[in-house]
Amino acid sequence: MDVAAAVRSTLLVSGDAFAQTHYPYAPGQTVRRDVTYTNSGPAPVTLDLTLSPAELPEGLFTLSDAQVTVPAHGTASVGVITHLDAAEDNGAYATRLVATGADGAVLARTPVGVNKEGRRATLALRAKDRHDKPLSGTVILKDVERNTAPKVYSVGASGRLDLRLSPSTYSVWLNSAVPGVDGTHTLGFAMFTAPEIDLDGDRTVAFDADDLRKAAALTPRATANQFLRIDQYRGNTGLFPFMDSYVAEYWRYDSLWVTPTPEVRTGSYNFATRWRQIQPPLTFSAGSQVFDDVTVQSLSSQLPEGTRAYRAAWAGDGSVAEFRGVEVRNRVAVVRRSDTVTPRDQAAAAARAGARQLLILNNGYGKFDPWADLPEAAPLPVASLGTDDSTRLLARFRATGTITLQVVSHPTPRYAYDLVRRHEGAVPRDPSYRPAAAELARVDDTFRDTSQGQAVEYRQDISLLGRPLGIVPTQVRAQGELTSWVTADDDVQWVSFASRSDLGQRGVARSYTPRSTTRETWFAPIQHPRLLSDNGTSVQGPFRAGDHISTSVMTAWGDSGGHAGVVWADSDTSRISLYQGGELLGEDVNERIVVAGGLSPDPKPYRLVLEGSRNLPDRPYSTRSRTVWDFTSATTDPTRLTPLPLVQLDYAVDADLSGRVHRRTDLTVTASHLKGAAGAGAIRTATVEVSYDDGATWRRPALRPSADGWTARLDAPGKARYASLRTTAKDIEGNGVSQTLIRAFGLR
Fold it and tell me: Is the distance from CB of 19 to CB of 60 less than 8 angstroms?
């Protein structure tokens, strides 16, 4: 054994040299921590002591001794002294105490460090309901003057939360459930907001439910809330903006409530509320008394469209025994919410008794929808009535004994409102929204899928941070109509969607002009690849950035209404391939993205190929497609996503709801580029070929220029069932497209 190893084995180190200090501390204050060396050997050991590495504030650490001798079978200590004045507030520093022997060999290393907490102040949060009782909830706290992550805290049953924080400017908001703020048995989602708290000393912030104001949207036509959301945005110059968004569960909350605030002075603050309101899906009335606080239970089947009169039968707590004693066949069975009979059992008993519908009378706060947590629907249509309406209906039962209910059912709404209201700098004294005609635009949606059934429609709004935000979809008929009124403002953008179980369709982000009317058609033939781009706000088309090309997400099945497709079905396949000349740069399947990098900055020819195939019983048309884009591309600004000069084809043909057209009809083809495409030129030429035998043979009808592009007259043989298309178009810069659609539409 060498001498150094032998000496090292005789030393043991105890103690640590880490210090923590908390505000307040005195000027000139020092903190000492001792490190003790124990020598178990027969000879003394002399240690030279240094701090290494020493890249620390000057004078932060010093040693009580630069050298110690540890006697045989004894101990010796050295003090590590921290001079707090040399440390910054809220700073953390670390180094090592190195002990070397007489020969320079390192015999021990001991970590040394200090954390110095700076000045602190107490932010005391106090929350109470309108009866001056403590209110619990969730708190979000954000430092407005530093790039720090927001923090989340819970306020418990005491309604109190004390936080020790560095002096700064803070935004704080607390969300909570507040029952009966308006004197009813409704349950509201409340947001108590303090967007600017100057914390330069201890401070108390009180959140009082008496300060809440209802954020309601009051529309010209009767509506029911389907979606409620609150957004808060907080920013400061040079710092990352912070956005917080809250969705009030539609099966629980009836309303939104907020607290007005003063204008902020530091940075920026925006507050927004978002509503989707639809035609009431279900209302009841008896005589002149209307009961409209109705919650259709999740997954529930619904009564047919229209107004009908039904006898109502009172079945008490809804037990099997109760139903034995009352005639409910083809009637509305009315029961009370029960702690002993579950809603599932009530529904089962009502169904066995032959009831047309079950109506549950609530006795608590908020909406009552137990099926929101259940995996399957009830065996018959089920709805619940709000507590205040329930009390009135029950009183009518007691007074008259029998009731005839007028039941108005709209299982799919005929109209809806998509509304956003934004406030800059503060939450206003009156946060409600009463949109005038001059603030709204009308959107007439027509759904023209080739088979009837259930579809959904929804419209996302683009947040102030430039991202689309989600919403609860509205059920519509796949062959039906919906009229929507939307907030019309240059600063408010919307993205529309429609979907069936196998196929979705989407548009681009857009604003609407006040008092305007826009007509949109969904799912209509001819379905084909449809490219969309709104500069990445909600969708990005194929682009180039510097010497990289990305196809983005490209699908084979858009519609003739200018919507891109989103495929859900497993039996729907597609393949995308990108070439430079004859070289394959990349390919993938089923809506994946192909990215090619390291491309030549010079103009080069490229080819993009998208092939699609689907075999679905409800998709008889556009069963196969192949689109080839030939284009020239050179380097672009690497900091921007510049659209490629791909020629986009669109079609218009007069098809019925089954997707079939008359054998002698006009077909119009339109060609265009994505906005801002680099290297695009005017489109001058196009050709159209038609096949009536799935592409075995082709005919070329004459094309005539029209207002929208080129129009061809079709003349199908009497026995033909389908028409297939082969279309080309080319611009003056040489960019072109060739598209083949097998069974593009049917013939009648």
Answer: no
